[in-house]
Amino acid sequence: MKQKLLLALLLILSIKSFSQDSKFSIEASYPIPIGDNFIAENYNGIFDIGAKYRFSKIKNINIGTSINGGILVNNTNDNNGNQDFKVKSYLIQPKLFAELTIESISKLHPFIGFGYTFMVFDASGTNNGFDVSGSSKTDSGINANFGVAYDITTKIFIGIQYDYVKLKVDEETPNTTFNTNVNLLKVGLGFRI
Questions:
Q1: Structural element, H or E, at residue 74
Q2: To 10 degrees, the CA torsion angle through 144, 163, 148, 112?
Q3: Which of 15, 29, 77, 111 is the most buried (most CB within 10 A)?
Q4: Which of 91, 86, 113 is nearest to 31 (CA)?
């Protein structure tokens, strides 16, 4: 696994050596669930990683595609009760985005994005004496986000973004905003390749 990661990193860096103006960036963020919903009440963010590719520039707007992957955790092991399980939620978020370049504030890059989110919930442990290990469920829905990146150097930037996800729920789950709305605040660091 480490060899594959190293090979991928070397490949990305070698691509950059042949390019004068790179259109790629990678980001690492800390996701913070917020709002009045089941994710904010039960889950903690672990990490979020992403990659962006800018494929077009129209005047002062970069258009591109991105993908993010993250992990959120619901850990009931701390409550010393009958519920002793952990649920990991793996997020996969492909998006299209538009990033604005402001000439008077060249280090500031506001952006918006639209896409889709897949949330894979994977449980392990016991719930009231029943083994829930291996149970898995996937929910998905549309995703909209906005944020801003600030250049620290020509290669390194910090960023903050807000993600709104509207999940589709199955017939067993009540169709309420508590169960369908997911709000994430992501704060992180990025690198232009």
A1: strand 61-75
A2: 0
A3: 29
A4: 91
Neighbours of 78 (CB within 10 A): 8
Alpha carbon 5 to its chain centroid, in Å, reads: 19
The residue written with tokens 């259109």 in the block is 23
Token pair belonging to 87 = 């649920």
Question: Could you tell me which of 63, 137, 74 has the C-alpha nearest to residue 100?
Answer: 63
Domains and CATH numbers, the chain: 2-192 (2.40.160.20)
| DSSP code for 14 | H
Helix (H), strand (E) at residue 11: helix 2-17
Is pTM, for the whole model, over 0.85? no
